[in-house]
Design goal:
Length: 273
């Protein structure tokens, strides 16, 4: 049996900690917890956790301090933020700054376990890639990065601005690599409204897990890519071109694009390693 994934949950509400511990007991996870940020940071300094689940706002600090601690000490654990409705913009910013995912409060057991599953897969992919790069002095294609003209919301969804002012949005290949084979996609409809950071479509994988994808932009859907319904696995085969999901008229792209990561910077980071 594989060694259980070590998870640390940091939250000032015992009811949330209890919910996470009970949910994770359903699968092969080893759980530790901290009731405040100070204790959480102390635990991180003494022990390695492959996944950290942290409330974004707490009385003695916020999740960005955990993110900064991981980056400063070059700890490669995956960070999942927990957020309420009023702090979704902060959660979006956390993805830009390096968090792996965020989940809403209140969350369901399925939402939590799906997020942990993806974070665990993401951690494995990144770890393998770093080891491969170190051993062979080159980068293996464990996943395909977004094209340089694109913007991404964390490692979840991407955005491409078109010349007519609309944007195409879709799903990042590394996200696809964390969810197993797609069995079903639940789309929204033309004229439906999107909000940055909120669910824009839902994927059901062959492992029966449900994965919700955060929208990279707020706006109105004007077209759904019908080819995704006609061609099997198109979104997996070509996620950045023919596999786009929606064409959207954005509400305030100039403001919201600041919350996204330009994919051109991914190449810069690779070249400096």
């Amino acid at each position: 049996m594989d060694k259980p994934t070590e998870i640390l949950v940091i939250d000032d509400e015992l009811v949330i900690i209890d919910a996470v511990v009970k949910a994770c007991s359903l699968e092969n996870y080893s759980i530790d917890f901290a009731i405040n940020l100070k204790t959480g940071l102390e635990k991180i300094s003494k022990k390695y956790y492959s996944i950290i689940i942290c409330d974004i706002m707490m009385p003695d600090g916020d999740g960005f301090q955990v993110l900064n601690e991981l980056q400063t000490k070059k700890i490669d654990g995956a960070l999942i933020m927990m957020t309420g409705y009023s702090t979704v913009e902060n959660a979006v910013n956390s993805l830009r700054d390096g968090a792996t995912d965020f989940i809403p409060k209140p969350f369901t057991v399925d939402e939590l376990l799906s997020s942990i599953y993806r974070a665990n897969k993401y951690h494995q992919i990144i770890t393998r890639q770093k080891l491969y790069s170190k051993d062979s002095n080159k980068v293996d294609l464990f996943y395909v990065e977004c094209p340089t003209k694109y913007y991404r919301l964390g490692h979840s969804s991407w955005l491409l601005e078109e010349s007519d002012g609309t944007v195409l949005i879709g799903i990042c290949d590394i996200f696809l690599k964390t969810i197993d084979k797609i069995m079903e996609i639940e789309f929204l409809e033309p004229e439906d409204e999107l909000a940055q950071g909120f669910n824009c479509f839902t994927i059901k994988s062959n492992s029966e897990r449900i994965h919700k994808i955060h929208s990279p932009v707020s706006g109105r859907i004007i077209e759904v890519n019908q080819n995704l319904k006609l061609v099997s696995n198109l979104i997996e085969k070509d996620p950045y071109f023919e596999g786009w999901v929606y064409r959207v008229i954005p509400h305030d792209l100039g403001y919201e694009i600041k919350n996204l990561t330009p994919c051109s910077s991914d190449r810069t980071q690779v070249n400096t390693h």
